[in-house]
Amino acid sequence: HGPYQPHEPGYGLDQPGYSPYEDEIPDPRARMLAIKNAKAYLLKTSTKSGLNLYDHFANILTKILDEQPTNTVDIIENISKDVKCAQFRKKMDTLRDEHLILPTFEAAEKRKALFVKEGGEEQREEVEEEMPTLPNVMETAFYFEQAGIGLSKDESYYIFLALKNLINVQPIQTCRFWGKILGLEMNYIIAEVQLQEGEEEEETGEEGEGTTAEGEKEAEEDEQKEKEAEPPKSTYKPPPEIPKEANGTGTNKYVYFVCNEPGKPWVKLPPVTPAQIVCARKIKKFFTGRLNAPVVSFPPFPGNEANYLRAQIARISAGTHVSPTGFYQFADEEEEEEEGADTYEENPEFEPPPVAEMVESLATWAHHVKGILKQGRCVWINPSQKSEENEEDDEEEEEEEGEEQQEERGPPLLTLISEDEGMKDIPAWTAQASTNLIPEYSVAILQSNRWPGAYAFASGRKFENIYFGWGHKYSPESHTPELPAPVQAEFPSGPGITETADPTVEEEMAFKVAQEDALAEAEEEEDEEGEDD
Amino acid sequence: PERRAALGVSLPLLQRDYRFDQVWFWGCIQGVRGAYYIAEGLGPDRAAPRSRLYSLNCLDWSLLTPATKEMLALAEHVKGRFQGDPSFEYSLAEINTEAAARLTVSGKEPVMKEEARLIATIEQIDRAVGIVPRGAFVKTPLGSVHENRHFEGLSLVEAKKLSSYFHFTDPVNLKNKTLLEKADLDPSTDFLDSLEHDIPRGSWSIQLEKGGAVVVLRSLLWLGLTFYHVPMTKQFGYVYFGTGEKNLDLPFML
């Protein structure tokens, strides 16, 4: 036993006069026995874990004195737990822990791949004419950072490198970082790109085949319906499909590539159809992060998440891409109608207004993307022009419908944003200067209130638009889903199916009497009456 | 960057003036004409009602009074963006005539000041979606709540589960758990509501960024509330950047 150290539990017990049991056990020998019993109790090994309390206390106190945490008495239970855990691990020493391949390392590897330069890059410098313009993402990020918007510098740099990879892989004319859309499981990083000519024709071939296949199917169904005379032919004619705009114009002016994280391969988004835009206006759904996820909604969205994403991108671009007024001008000033004003070019004589003016008046900014009409396209098309393939009856009906649809006029191309309507009393845009303390270097920032998350900045000749957000439009009222269409009227009633009251007995008797003369007819009528019953 | 620098300057000053134990930057509510920056100060008991301050330029801070139930009830009726001007008054007569009538009866004007709406909104957000990782706070036998100095962060596996995060408010559902579940709980750390049973299901989005180096939770009910945590370290926090409106369309959007 030896003299007890102050930290040992038995301290003070062997001193005469200090033992807690003093008054009970005055006899020293009995006291020693009591102490031995107490220690034996503490040394009793637990049947469950093989530890004993004595050693455990010794370990705890050693640890406490070594580490000396503050407010020990409050965390003593945790310390006790930790010591027990430490004991447990020692037993498993024989097995070495498998070095876990954390997803952290995989992601780091992918990003490293971004940094690796290709060997053949030096040769490319000769062909500088065809080199597409890589946007200076870092510069844009700097300007947005002045406003407090944007991603961290690391991520911006990764995106920069990823865009460079994209340019190397795809034949691209111009490229821009469009923004980032958040999703439930993963986010999307989006690049707006203009492909070189000649690359876009592949899409139309596939479509042509699709429509012919549908035409054949419809012919077969019609034949079947004519054979079975009983179920009446449905008078439902789906509204004529509005053709999508050709690649390179209108809503499909740019091609969009997305990726979930920089380092992952870029996926091209399919061009958007007007039906998808019209439907996207009616639904409000979160993106999950997987491009092939179905979009379950009412009215049913024609397509999967990739199409919904593309439709939202188109709406956001049309609603919020702005530039300082005068930066772009029409190629030909005479063609200011909606049809011809598709092209614009930079105005070489543009003088940037000072930042203060850009902040104060919204008339210094203009949209440079065409707005989307209700039809879902930028250029209105008369659907009755499509009726060449259908039968004559259909043509007449569609012409009547075509007259009802009036030609839609959207705002012309370079409208000032001061003409954007606000919702209730909220203006459509909020303009701010990035800093009031240093006006010489401040940047004019524009925030959209209709699409929260869309920002634009302008500083001198430089300007840029970007989007960071969930991808939904702002509406002060709650979103109300579209009501289902009214139930179709059942087929028109006619004499064949109209219910009539069955004749009463007296009427039948009277009828029978009247028919007794014509025996031949009476027999037939009895048969008929039998059927009616 | 300008605002970050200003915050770095003004928050320590706040701490000194109000004698807070800790000052947190809570976030920013975007109004139409300006933005409110909100900071919170905490006393030694972390679960006590916090004092909140707001500022329009990150330099001058004004204390907000604690939220009352009336304010909360009225704020539910006011919809739309914040204006950015703290003395703006919403006319309640247009929005909800009942509430307006009640107020006129009690002798007050039927308007709601934007400041009150701000207070109520912050309180709602904190109550609904202010979260902390499990084990970060311990409750002492005296009832006060302290940071757990032994908290070393959640592991990667735990960090992906919704059940390892708690609401930092008075628990509502805790007593409804079955006895079996209660046996597993540790009363010093599990005294708060977990996120698992949030209605509607799926109103949180968990993402691992940088391949697991950071866990980010975003609330879909209050769009703009982001919570981050670096697994296996003590770093965590949440911040709100948004328009200060509840996302009532959530059930349609999932």
From TrEMBL, chain A:
It is found in: Cytoplasm, Cytoskeleton, Cilium axoneme. One of its GO terms (cellular component) is radial spoke. The keyword ATP-binding does not apply. It comes from Helopsaltes ochotensis (Middendorff's grasshopper-warbler). Pfam families: Radial_spoke (PF04712). It comes from the Eukaryota. This is RSH4A protein. Keywords: Cell projection, Cilium, Cytoplasm, Cytoskeleton. The gene is Rsph4a. Residues 197-209, 389-406 have a biased composition (Acidic residues). The keyword Ligase does not apply. One of its GO terms (biological process) is axoneme assembly. Transmembrane segments: none annotated. Residues 1-23, 196-248, 383-412, 479-500 are annotated as: Disordered.
Automatic annotation (TrEMBL), chain B:
Its main location: other. InterPro entries: RSP9. One of its GO terms (cellular component) is axoneme. It is found in: Cell projection, Kinocilium; Cytoplasm, Cytoskeleton, Flagellum axoneme. The keyword Cytoplasm applies. Keywords: Cell projection, Cilium, Cilium biogenesis/degradation, Cytoplasm, Cytoskeleton, Flagellum. The keyword Transcription does not apply. One of its GO terms (biological process) is axoneme assembly. Belongs to the flagellar radial spoke RSP9 family. This is Radial spoke head protein 9 homolog. The lineage of its organism: Eukaryota, Metazoa, Chordata, Craniata, Vertebrata.
